[in-house]
Amino acid sequence: MRRLRFIHFADLHLDAPFMALRSEVKAERRRNDLLRAFDRIIETAKNEKPDIILICGDLFEHRHVRKTTIAYINNRFCEISSISVVILPGNHDPYTVNSYYHTYSWSSNVYIFKNDEEVYYNNELGIRVFGISKSDGIAKIVSFSTSSAINQNTLDELNIKKTEDVVQTEDINICMLHGSLDFEFDSSAYNPISTARLESLNMDYYALGHFHNMVYAKGAQKRIYNPGSPEPLGFDEEGTHYIFSGEIIKNNNEPSELRVTEIPINYTNYKNLKLDVSGCESMQSLLFKIVDLLNTEDREKTLFKIILVGSTSAELVIDYKYIENNLLEQFFYVKILDNTIALRNMKELAQSSGIRGVFAKIMMQKIADEVDLNKRYLYEKALDYGLEALNGQKIEIVQGLGEKENVYN
């Protein structure tokens, strides 16, 4: 019988620049948060005593990482020298000639995949780990029941090359993948592969990275896992963030038994809050309302995005930069999105002469005809912006509510 205990994490992005914070002091605080998360992982490993740690890509930011950070990481790996550490480079920390993966002298318990043609063996543990990190190589993974797998362009289409490095049913077989699971297979997807294609490789565990939100027990075999980022990095990553601690038990050629638990890691949180500011007649009253909302939250450990909604006077021009600047000293980070609709006498405006009247009439008809609430809102905002522009006001269009946003870039 073979038994393997493991820790699985990915996408820590150490030394991320955090330029969107617009403050080097705050950016450094967030970089320290990432190191704090890494320390928690190492301390968890010391307590859990796994046989192996699987790091599935984007451990650090290749373009920004400092040598002192690499030295710190490596020193902490040295502290757990009895635990094997297997690192699969990702798209943010690729294995290149100038990468610290190549140039730095790592601890003897650390193994780093250089390309997709490698397999990590540990005969003492009875495991084989296959790494897939980039789509320009042919991975040497093959199951005994299939002859097609990974593609040079998309991981889902080309025939795979059969080699001696095959899945051994008596061993514990693990696939590490930094890529896009069940993503639309186009040029924007990084290492796309389907759940069905991945499961056909007949592994005991599929350790994934790349996307920052959790995937737990996916697939018919319930063996595909992605812990997401241990420390959140954007407003699309709300809530608690975890690493996985697991155990695989295998008796000869029988199907293995898999147990996986979640361990919370993150220190900081991102939070999206909606605030109805209907009735606010001045910037000062609006600011007071925002502060009242935020005073109920953890201001030290939370980055906030406040989405202003409701109907406001047409005379009230919401200056989101003024609000953000007034909150800088009280809160670590606050981003304001103005999704309010200005109250106007639209019927009277549409009947007026000139370009403003023509524009208002056209837009009001579009709003009336549109049944999709999201599209109707866009037309309403377009009407707002258009009228402000026709009045000679400066228009600043901030990022929309539905768009993906990360603060670590």
In short:
It is elongated, with a radius of gyration of 26 Å. α8 (355-369) packs antiparallel against α9.
Topology readout:
Elements: E1 2-9, H1 24-48, E2 52-55, H2 67-79, E3 84-87, H3 100-103, E4 110-112, E5 119-122, E6 127-132, E7 172-178, E8 180-181, E9 192-193, H4 195-199, E10 205-209, E11 215-218, E12 224-226, E13 242-250, E14 257-264, E15 269-276, H5 283-294, E16 302-309, E17 311-313, H6 320-327, E18 333-338, E19 341-343, H7 346-350, H8 355-369, H9 373-390
Parallel strand pairs: 1-2, 2-3, 3-4, 6-7, 7-10, 8-9, 10-12, 15-16, 16-18, 17-19
Antiparallel strand pairs: 1-13, 5-6, 11-12, 13-14
Description:
With 409 residues, this protein is of the alpha/beta class. It folds into two domains: 263 residues, 4-Layer Sandwich (Purple Acid Phosphatase, chain A, domain 2), CATH 3.60.21; 120 residues, no CATH class. The protein is 26% helix and 24% strand. The strands form five sheets. The protein has a six-stranded mixed beta sheet with strand order 4-3-2-1-13-14, with helices on one face. Strands 5-6-7-10-12-11 form a six-stranded mixed beta sheet. It has a three-stranded parallel beta sheet with strand order 15-16-18. Strand 11 and strand 12 form a beta hairpin. Helix 8 runs antiparallel to helix 9. It is elongated. The two termini are 46 Å apart.
Percent of residues in beta strands? 15-25%
Overall tally of domains: 2
CATH class of the largest domain: Alpha Beta
Largest sheet: 6 strands, mixed
CATH architecture of the largest domain, please? 4-Layer Sandwich
Q: Nearest-angstrom radius of gyration?
A: 26 Å
